[in-house]
Amino acid sequence: MQLSSAQKALLGDYIHADAAPGRFAVLNPADGSTLCYVQNQGAAETTAAIAAADAAFAGWSGLTAKARSIILKKWNELVLAHLEDMAMLVTLEQGRPIKETRGEVTYGASFIEWFAEEAKRAYGRTIPATLPGKHLQTIKQPVGVCAAITPWNFPISMITRKVSPALAAGCTVVIKPSEETPLSALALLTLARQAGMPDGVISMITSTTAKEVGEAMTSDPRVKKLSFTGSTPVGKLLYAACAPTMKKVSMELGGNAPFLVFDDANIDDAIEGVLASKYRNSGQTCVCANRILVQAGIYDRFTAALVERVKAMKLEPGWQEDSQLGPLINQKAIDKVVHLVDDAVAHGAKVATGGHVDGQGPLFYQASVLTNVTEDMEIFSTEIFGPVAPLFKFDSEDEAIRMANDTPFGLAAYAYTRDIGRAMRVASKLQYGMVGMNDGVISTEVTPFGGIKESGIGREGAVEGLEEYLSVKYISYGGLGAI
Ligand code: ADP
User: Does the active-site annotation cover 171?
Assistant: First the structure.
């Protein structure tokens, strides 16, 4: 499956039909074909983009919030006007089913819309003075040039979730999208330019030398903030690299989400929750249910019902309209899933369904359920990032909470119970930045997304998302006389 002429039109001069030095191939994970080639940029281009962002900062931050908002709204409209082509670009370069990638485009656009609105609400405060003749005030100002490094699993929304609040606040941005998914990122850039985004306000670095680009970003004193979404090890490296210039950072890192199902849960609802939270994007999201903890009284009933539903899921190339699961992103992802399943089985887990790479291609992994999974298996402590649901058994609420919190990660957690007291206790005790209580799909543009512990720092979306790109300045006006 190849790019259509409408998709190519969105990518313009950013893409090339042929291999050449200084270019890299963008692959279709479903069939291994090459979609096109893009520029392989490095430190020099990154530094030039930072210089352009620095030069554009005064003009962009000097606009009224409303003027910036108008451009953002136009960008949102253009993204939605190209929904189908943008969605197919994501499906082609990432593998995800088209039904889901349409959602990725509207979800991505929702951040542009939200922050276009929030741009106008970067309020400061007036604080009652402690001495006569003084006026105490805070104002919010854009932090400056920002760098954003994004992953491949939500190739549109991970960009818009960072870039829209940055732009709304008055910052300029240099983005490094994942080398796996540069096409949807470049299409976003085309539409931003069409919306009237001035030169230098957004730049994009497509690269296979992430380390080199990251170093150019983190070492440059003109960059005042780094926002990163990706793996915890890379996040730690980047956090350290930001220390010498004391950059502000936001880090959205790995998770190990527990999904608790209590005896008193509505089982049908819990099954829907697991299906949504585990198998969406073939299990390749940082808020995916990673450990499904089921209370002993319903374990067998829950397992049977889940397995029946999972068996019926359609694993097919993402461009087929009824596809529910596509290929994983690359061989490394497959190797990890195979290893985790093998380790679990070697230690006594049972494969209730799936458990193998599928015959239709090397990157297709079957929707799988493992039972009899225990805490000594690697899958308990490792983010799977694949369509495998490991089912653990617990007896008491205390045991469930202990198991759920037994991880250095703290991004998202889920729990299903119809007991109001238990719901409130459990929500409070789960050591996570986000909790879905009787809810398997929690991400929205209007709520703060982010983790605690080793899952990260900062929040994206919501009112909090704008604050990440603003500095608070306190101004004390003295000598005013009686006011
Ligand atoms: P994943 O395993 O999900 O790809 P990564 O953390 O490796 O997660 O990648 C997320 C983003 O971070 C991608 O854009 C990738 O290119 C980038 N990246 C990976 N390693 C580095 C690094 N050393 N410095 C800067 N960016 C990096």
Answer: no
CA angle 212, 148, 383 (to 5 degrees): 85
**Residues 66 and 86 both lie in one domain:** yes
Choosing from 45, 286, 445, 454, the catalytic residue is 286
Q: Is 481 left (phi over 0), alpha (psi -120 to 50) or beta?
A: left
Name every residue whose Cβ is closer than 8 Å to that of residue 100 and which is 6 or more positions away in sequence.
Answer: 280, 281, 318
Q: How far apart are CA 211 and CA 131, in angstroms?
A: 52
Q: Are residues 284 and 150 in the same domain?
A: no
**In what helix (H) or strand (E) does residue 16 lie, and over which residues does it extend?**
strand 15-16
Q: Which atom of ligand 1 is nearest to the CA of 385?
A: 3
- pLDDT, tens digit (0-9, with 9 covering 90-100), for 223-272: 999 999 999 999 999 999 999 999 999 999 999 999 999 999 999 999 99
286 included as an active-site residue: yes
Residue whose CA is at the smallest distance from ligand 1 atom 22: 211
Query: In angstroms, how far is the first alpha carbon of the chain from the final one?
Result: 71
Do the Cβ atoms of 30 and 55 come closer than 8 Å?
Answer: no
95 & 178 share domain: yes
